[in-house]
Description:
alpha+beta; NADH Oxidase; five-stranded mixed sheet; four-stranded antiparallel sheet; 35% helix; 15% strand; globular
Amino acid sequence: MKPKPVNDTRGDTGRFAEDARFAVEAARWAPSVYNTQPWTFGIGEGRISLRADADRRLDVADPDGREMLISCGAALFNLVLALRYRGYAPRVRLLPEPDRPHLLADVDVTEPAEGPAGPDVVRLYEQVRERRTHRGPFRPHQVPAGLLATLREEARREGAALHVITDEHARAALAALTGAAEHLGRADPARNAEIIRWAPPPHSSRPDGVHAEAYPREPERARPDFPGRDFARGQGWGSDAPSGDAARGAATGVVVLLTTAADTPADWLRAGQAMQRVLLRAHAEEGLSAAFHTQALEFPELREVIRTRLCDGANPQMLLRLGVTDTRYRTVRRPLGELLHQE
């Protein structure tokens, strides 16, 4: 679908409603922790608001709502990108009302852009539905150094920093901390109950959560190995890898840490926007997918080790692996109608 100019349609409420729904449709395809999709959107006169759905916060893994707001920040990036694609010049206010902490952003959509969406906006927007979360190793692939520099700049544009972890000992340490956190989580009945809530059995019709078709039945191991979450819980659930994937070999991929200088709700939102910009750029330029490993960041003591030892004192918000895969796992999203309300 080509972007539609809005310069000559200001004041057209029917057109704005259509464009607002178009933007929220893009927003709902953002990644979120456990695929909780913890967001709702309000459409008013020339504005769209983003709210956190606190009922979808992970009470055990994410009691402060940090990962919930990172997820919402990713949705906000998609929302603004889609509005730019449609020819608007949106203006964003983060956390506009301190006494309403779940009101995360107000997006003013009263101004048209000076011209049609540029090729870069179009290219990023085209990745919104193509981007996929990967769970497992990647196939061997050398990511160009120039792209990694570009991804660092993309994160910086949104107020975050992207650290590419190249030292083999640092990579091994992050893998070991991820493994330790995974073992601690599996030994915690409350965390296991939370995974049960958000990881339905096969053939579920739920429009959220991590379905059995979204992770491998028997994941391969790479060195260093970053274990995934145990969504199957020993039940043998999961998707079989396409034939021939194993023959390509298993690689860890590029290990990156996304950090912010401070550690406030506004920083968490910016981290989500930076993450989504990086993910879309990585897919647009080199077809890279991302694997998320936030287990260690959900234990304050392990997160502190990463902050002081591997981030030069910056606050780690996301731990990712980037790489190329031929596997496309199925994902689900909540219906658009569940996310919208009039203001």
